[in-house]
Design a protein that fits this description.
295 residues, alpha+beta, ADP-ribosylation fold, 6-stranded antiparallel beta sheet
Length: 295
C-alpha cells in the first residue's frame, strides 16, 4: 500500500559510524537497501517505538532528520513488520515511510543524538529554516549553529581578532544552549522567529532571565552583551517554534575560551535558578570543547 508523503520531516536511526561512512562516499546505503530494496524510515511518532523494538543496547545512535522534499529516490508509505500501534493508520495497518534508493546527504538537514529526541514532529517553518541555513551541532551544547565570519587577523597570543555565527533554537528537533561561560564578552542578536530566553548566572550570585526578540513594548532585546565569566544558557520561550539568532565576539571564539556548567555545581552557587539549571546544565560528559575545536 502506498500513500503520498505528508510529513514535514521523516527520520532514520543509525550509528554515528554509519553516518561518517556515508559522508565519505556521498550517499547513505544501509544493508536494507541491498536486501529489501529500500531504506527504513520513520515518522516522528514512530521513532521511539522503532528504537525500542530494534536498537536496544546499540551504542552511539544518532537520528537523521530528513526533508522528504529533497529525496531523489521514490518515497512510499507502507506497512512494515508489526510494531507498537501508532498513527496514521490505513485499514488498521501502521504505515512507515520507505525510501527506494540511497538517502541523499543533501536531504539530511539535522543530526541529533537519538537520546535527545522526544518524538515531537518539527513544524514546517522550522524545516524551512533548517533547509536554508544547513546548521551543524555544537559539541557539548548541541546547539544548531553555523560559523559565518572568522577574522583573518590573529591576536598576538593566537586566535582570531573576531568571530560571528548564526544559531537557531528549535522546539523540535530540540536545540538549546547549555550553561557555559566564556573568557570574553559575547554579543547576542535576535534575528527572527520567536522569542528566546537567555538565563544568566552572575559571578556575584545573582541570576536573571533576558528576553530576546522584537517586542520592544514587552521588554525584549534585539541585542544584549553577556559579560565574560557569566554562566549563560539559552532556550525558546514557551510556545515558540524556532528562534534565529547571532553571536559575535572580539576577541573571537575558540574552544579554549569555553567551559560548560555542571548541574550539581551551578545549583550550589545559584540555588534560586535550580529549575533552569536542571533543564540546561551538563549532567554527564565533558565540560570542554574537543581539542582543536574552532582553533
Amino acid at each position: 500500500m502506498t500513500t503520498a508523503p505528508t510529513d514535514a520531516a521523516i527520520f532514520h536511526i543509525c550509528t554515528r559510524a554509519a553516518l561518517d561512512a556515508a559522508r565519505t562516499t556521498g550517499a547513505y546505503h544501509p544493508e536494507s537497501l541491498a536486501h529489501e530494496g529500500f531504506v527504513h524510515l520513520s515518522c516522528a511518532h514512530q521513532v521511539l517505538p522503532t528504537a525500542r523494538a530494534y536498537f536496544t543496547g546499540v551504542a552511539d545512535l544518532v537520528l537523521l532528520v530528513i526533508d522528504p522534499a529533497l529525496l531523489t529516490a521514490p518515497l512510499r508509505y507502507e506497512p512494515p513488520a508489526p510494531l507498537p500501534s501508532a498513527q496514521p493508520k490505513v485499514d488498521d495497518v501502521e504505515l512507515y515511510p520507505h525510501c527506494y534508493g540511497p538517502l541523499d546527504l543533501e536531504a539530511i538537514v539535522d543530526v541529533i543524538d537519538l537520546a535527545h529526541f522526544d518524538g515531537r514532529p518539527p513544524h514546517t517553518d522550522t524545516m524551512t529554516v533548517l533547509r536554508h541555513h544547513r546548521f551543524e551541532r555544537l559539541p557539548v551544547e548541541g546547539t544548531l549553529y553555523r560559523s559565518t565570519w572568522r577574522s583573518a587577523e590573529e591576536l598576538d597570543g593566537g586566535g582570531p581578532v573576531g568571530t560571528a555565527m548564526i544559531g537557531c533554537y528549535t522546539e523540535s528537533p530540540r536545540s538549546v544552549s547549555l550553561f557555559h561561560r566564556l573568557t570574553h564578552d559575547e554579543v547576542w542578536h535576535a534575528y527572527g522567529g520567536d522569542t528566546f530566553l537567555l538565563h544568566l548566572l552572575h559571578e556575584d550570585g545573582r541570576s536573571e532571565v533576558v528576553r530576546m526578540g522584537h517586542d520592544m513594548a514587552g521588554g525584549e532585546h534585539v541585542q544584549y552583551v553577556v559579560p565574560a565569566g557569566t554562566w549563560q544558557a539559552g532556550e525558546l520561550a514557551p510556545g515558540g517554534r524556532y528562534a534565529l539568532f547571532g553571536c559575535t565576539m572580539a576577541p573571537g571564539f575558540t574552544g579554549r575560551c569555553f567551559e560548560a556548567g555542571r548541574v550539581d555545581l551551578l545549583r550550589l552557587s545559584h540555588p534560586q535558578a535550580a529549575d533552569a539549571i536542571g533543564r540546561l546544565g551538563v549532567t554527564h560528559g565533558s565540560t570542554q570543547m574537543p581539542p582543536g575545536f574552532a582553533e
